[in-house]
Amino acid sequence: MNVTLSSSELKKEGIEKTAQLSGANFFSCYQCGKCTAGCPASEFMDIPPHEVIRLLQIGQIEEILEKNSIWICASCITCAVRCPKGVDLAKIMEALRQIVLRKNVNYVHPSSVSKEELRTLPQIALIANFRKLTG
Amino acid sequence: MIKSARLNSVGVFVCHCGINIASTVDIEEVKRQLAGYPGVEFVKDYQYMCSEPGQLLFKEACRSETVGGVVVASCSPRLHETTFRRAAAEAGMNPYRVEIANIREQCSWVHHDEKEKATIKAVDIIKSVIERSKRNESLSSVSIKTVKKVLVVGAGISGMQAALNIANSGIETYLLDREPSIGGRMAQLSETFPTLDCSQCILTPRMVEVGQNKRITLMTYSEVEEVSGYVGNFKVKVRRKAAYVDWDKCTGCGLCSEKCPKKVPSEFDRSLGRRKAIYSQFPQAVPNKTVIDRESCLYFKTGKCRLCVEACPLGAIDFEQEDRIEEIEVGAIVVATGYDLYEKEKIEEYRIGYCEDVIDGLAFERLLSSSGPTQGRVLRPSDGTVPKEVVFIQCVGSRDPDHHLPYCSRICCMYTAKHAMLYKHRVPDGQPYVFYMDIRSGGKNYEEFVQRTIEEERVLYIRGRVARLYRDGKKVVVVGADTISGKKIEIRADMVVLAMAMRPSGGIGELSKKLKIQVDQNGFLSEAHPKLRPVETLTRGVFLAGCAQAPKDITDTVSQAGAAASMVLELLSNEELTHSPTTAWVDEELCAGCGQCVAQCAYGAIELDTRRKKAHVNDILCQGCGACVAACPSAAVNQRNFSISQYYSMIESIV
């Protein structure tokens, strides 16, 4: 896939927003991969955790948001605890989820949920169903 | 010394070298086979002959006066011959009656799969050395007086450092450079990593110190023409190039340069700025004298102009000046000739992108330098605008064994990080990108510096080589890949800086021939041993410092220059030097005066008396290589303790 880089691409809104919401400096990351290596859920992700950071570094936030990785993350913070550069990836994941959630897009319309499902599913699962793009 | 012993009887020690020899060669079998061999007085073995107890055993045998010589069967004579010869001398035996039989490098190490055959070979090697040893003469070393003066070739930071260390220890030093001023490459740099010290600010005090040092004689704008002689007594012819300015009169006022009408690209500014045909390299030049560039000067080209002559209030301009040859005598030479950059034109795949805005690292240094052509402002050479997107490419020409150079140039990772950081300081809204393969920042505070560049300055590091550059309007499009994300990357850059590979500076080949020192496969000067003799060459009395030996940064260069200076001082601290007496000699009865030996001698040690038609070997110059012995058609040349009859007896003992 081709990417054309420029300073505006690297400083676009989503990138700045992620930095602001997470409070993490993802430019510190030197791509050692320890986060991915220690992540208990990385095998279920479309792209591994370290690549989420790399895509942020090169301004490719849209690609991250298309993938399931941020929704698979369970915020166990193993990555953040082990990172040698102190990059809090768990917070970055949360920031990215917030960027999606704050768009207030309902991915499933409530009327499409059957009465049976409404009765049996826990509420938290229903909310996740409306807001999160988990594929 | 040897009273009761028969000179042709020998004692033999067989070293186990732990398991290095003993696990392959059957030591007991060796001892059995050698016991009773003609002339062998005893055969003993020991775990480590080089250890102190081993040497005690050896000395005891030397002292016992029952043997005329000792053979130590162990490792290569390169390693411990000196150890045992010294021990023999201490014990009162002539050191040249001690011989080493190499049964490790030439036997056990190379035949560890064939133990029986290795044992037979070890016995043969030892027998042959016994034969040689029985015929050895008691020799005494040749001594040479030393000239307590030193020549340092190259006056960059390494040459300056070596010269200062030597001169401050009380020894007269000549400091030579082919440029008009001392200072070298470091004078061109802007700021230095990882502290961002201004290069000129830390260099110029050193330059002034060199200029003021009474024991340092500057020979700038000069080249080494011819070197003869040997350690302690080199004779060097130096070509003092014609500056066409009388330096005794010139005060460096610069009026001549002001008036000179001819402008040409400045080499010092990597062609980003211009200089006059009569010029001094830079404002803080030492010595601060001008030279006329004959190729550009209008007077030399057309016979007209002479504006500089009119401008000079001291009458220093001298168009009639010619090169002079000056001869100096020195005891030691330090070679510190520095580096050049690999030519960017050699990178075929980048060529269509080349324009004024694609520059090398040294040119970028000049752009950043406060005394550079833009007074430190980062401006595009093509149109003088501030570049907003700048791409730095590392490893250009380096680490490319298939097309260019196989080695890592070692400093580019650090200076590129520095370039990107300084660019960001000068152009805060600009975006620097660095294409790299690995970041090699192994030095004190180096890794921290690189990380600061990435974290705080937000320089985007992209892991991958750039495949192509091409031009699109005023932009240079850089096509590379980010191997971490697996994406192909394109950047429309305003400017591209290439971290070109480092090469030894031009002319090193000829100079190495004149000095009879070796260069490696990449053209850098070879050290005598990569670990233990890093500043010596294989030619005694010639030492190395700085990037002439291998790429290195200023820190390492200064350390190495200090090391070279200390080696020089160690050498010259002796009133006399000793020289191995195993030299060649000519049997005049047999010599026909054909002169073939003279032609073979790489050290100029043989002279032919044409009147008497006899060759004569100078003991001091002879290095004992044996080339003349092999060349002589009448077997008139022999080498002491390596005589032809000794070789015959060695061969007879094993076939």
Short recap of the structure:
The complex is a heterodimer of chains A (135) and B (655). Chain A is an all-alpha fold.
Overview of the structural elements:
The complex is a heterodimer of chains A (135) and B (655). Chain A contains 10 helices and 1 strand, in the order E-H-H-H-H-H-H-H-H-H-H. By secondary structure, chain A is mainly alpha-helical. Chain A is 53% helix and 3% strand. Chain A folds into 2 domains: 7-103, Alpha-helical ferredoxin (Fumarate Reductase Iron-sulfur Protein, Chain B, domain 2, Orthogonal Bundle); 105-135, no CATH class. With 655 residues, chain B is an alpha/beta fold. Chain B folds into 5 domains: 6-134, Rossmann fold (3-Layer(aba) Sandwich), CATH 3.40.50; 149-234 and 327-338 and 508-572, 3-Layer(bba) Sandwich (FAD/NAD(P)-binding domain), CATH 3.50.50; 255-311, no CATH class; 340-503, FAD/NAD(P)-binding domain (3-Layer(bba) Sandwich), CATH 3.50.50; 583-639, Alpha-Beta Plaits (2-Layer Sandwich). In chain B, 27% of the residues lie in helices and 25% in strands. Chain B contains 18 helices and 34 strands. In chain B, the strands form 12 sheets. A 5-stranded parallel β-sheet of chain B has the order 10-7-6-18-29. A 5-stranded parallel β-sheet of chain B has the order 20-27-21-22-23. In chain B, strands 2-1-3-4 form a 4-stranded parallel β-sheet, with helices on both faces. In chain B, a hairpin with an 8-residue loop joins strand 13 (263-265) and strand 14. The two termini of chain B are 35 Å apart. The mean pLDDT of chain B is 95.
